[in-house]
Design a protein that fits this description.
41% of the residues lie in helices and 16% in strands. By secondary structure, it is of the alpha/beta class. The structure holds pyridoxal-5'-phosphate.
């Protein structure tokens, strides 16, 4: 029996749904490189990205995905042989670490537990031992999309300050930006790494980097080979230099519309919406999990991501099969388990251009798939999600206080 018709649901933690308004803004002709119709829009995007990242620092936009933005960040502030500290948060800290190694940085990890956030006290303890100041940078993942866990950036900043350590602080907020509060300047972050295709509601294809004054200073002495990524070229006056060549014009028009939508909704409202939808998803998983086969990976409720919920499956339950059947039979795309979690977890994203009924659709698809595959679960997950949203709507805020 086939019930495949209508729209596909996309609940992967990148890419996410692209609103029609953004698609329509991109559906236009390309322009002369220096046409004012493009330049004005592009300049406004560089200015307005600062409001989302909450920084007075310098913004760089790359025709790249998040990995490109990672490389841009590393190549601009470090020299080969520099030591960087990478506290393990999950698969994404491991991947950034591997990239740093490939770029000839010396990489030191702090082993982490994929079910908890980065521990500020572990960072502080390691930095206190570094009397000679050998550690040049600290690389953090804000929300590790593999684990569905968000680390407490102000607490980690406070730990670095308590150790009195001068290392640069680089944060990957690819999966968190536009889902939860982020304050680059207030939190003393030197380099922010983002991308277009998650909470920012655009297609994949724009890498976003922001640099503090301290990062721009470090850049001047950083000798890692670079050209396409180089901030120096991108800070020259001619606007096309900001893209080291032809701008990805239609992506920029899309970004303008996505920024308009975020500001119209209001960032606080955007975060509140994510918080309610995260709570609804968690409510559903808690119910399904009563049968013992499924559990939320993030054991500490206050560390749970607002944008993605990672669900572990019990031994003997193939999470990849669940994900593939859900996609191919129920037309709903879920995230798979990454790294250590391959086949042992799946992820429901609730980030970006999504509302409650879209989430109910996805949760319903998961519940149907669980039944179809005879995966033990208590029924009533959808009802719990609906009730969570109803209660949040009535009280003006979700019952979960993060
Ligand atoms: C998605 C993601 C990335 C990588 O983005 P790509 O665009 O796929 O290169 C990096 N970091 C985190 C935390 C992510 O979630």
């Amino acid at each position: 029996m086939s019930i495949k018709r209508g729209r596909k649901f996309l609940n992967t933690p990148g890419p996410t749904n692209v609103p029609d308004r953004v698609l329509n803004a991109m559906h236009r002709s390309t322009l002369d490189l220096s046409d004012p119709d493009f330049l004005d829009v592009s300049k406004s995007c560089f200015l307005d990205m600062r409001k989302v990242i909450r920084t007075k620092g310098e913004i760089f936009l790359y025709a790249s995905n998040g990995h490109g933005a990672w490389e841009a960040a590393l190549a601009n502030v470090f020299s080969p042989g520099d030591t960087v500290l990478v506290p393990e948060s999950g698969n994404f800290s491991n991947a950034w670490k591997a990239m740093a190694e490939a770029l000839h940085l010396k990489v030191e990890g702090i082993p982490g537990d994929w079910s908890r956030a980065i521990r500020p006290e572990a960072v502080e303890a390691r930095l206190k031992q570094d009397k000679k100041g050998e550690i040049k940078g600290i690389l953090l993942i804000h929300t590790d999309t593999a684990t569905g866990i968000t680390s407490d950036l102000p607490a980690i900043r406070a730990a670095i300050d308590a150790a009195g350590h001068p290392a640069l602080l680089l944060v990957d907020t690819v999966a968190a930006l536009g889902t939860v509060d982020y304050r680059m300047d207030e939190w003393g972050i030197d380099v922010t790494v983002g991308a277009s295709q998650k909470g920012m509601m655009m297609p994949p294809g724009l890498g976003i980097v922001a640099a503090s004054d301290k990062a721009l200073e470090a850049h001047k002495n950083a000798t890692m080979p670079r050209h396409y990524w180089d901030w120096k070229i991108r800070m020259e006056a001619a606007h096309y230099r900001k893209f080291c060549g032809t701008a990805p014009q239609l992506m920029v028009f899309g970004m303008r519309e996505a920024l308009n939508m975020l500001f119209e909704e209001g960032l606080e409202t955007v975060f509140e919406r994510h918080r309610v939808l995260a709570g609804a998803t968690q409510a559903a998983v808690e119910i399904w999990g009563q049968a013992g086969a499924l559990s939320i990976n993030a054991v500490e409720p206050k560390e749970r991501s607002m944008g993605v919920t990672t669900i572990r499956t019990a031994v003997g339950i193939d999470a990849n099969e669940l994900r593939i059947v859900c996609r191919d039979e129920m037309m709903t795309g879920l995230g798979g388990g990454l790294g250590l979690f391959d086949g042992k977890a799946f992820r429901i994203a609730h980030m970006g251009d999504i509302n409650a009924p879209m989430l109910y659709g996805a949760l319903g698809a998961v519940e149907s798939t669980l039944g179809y595959l005879n995966i033990p679960h208590a029924s009533g997950g959808i009802t719990a999600a609906v009730e969570h949203v109803t209660k949040a709507k009535k009280t003006g805020s979700g019952p979960f206080t993060y």
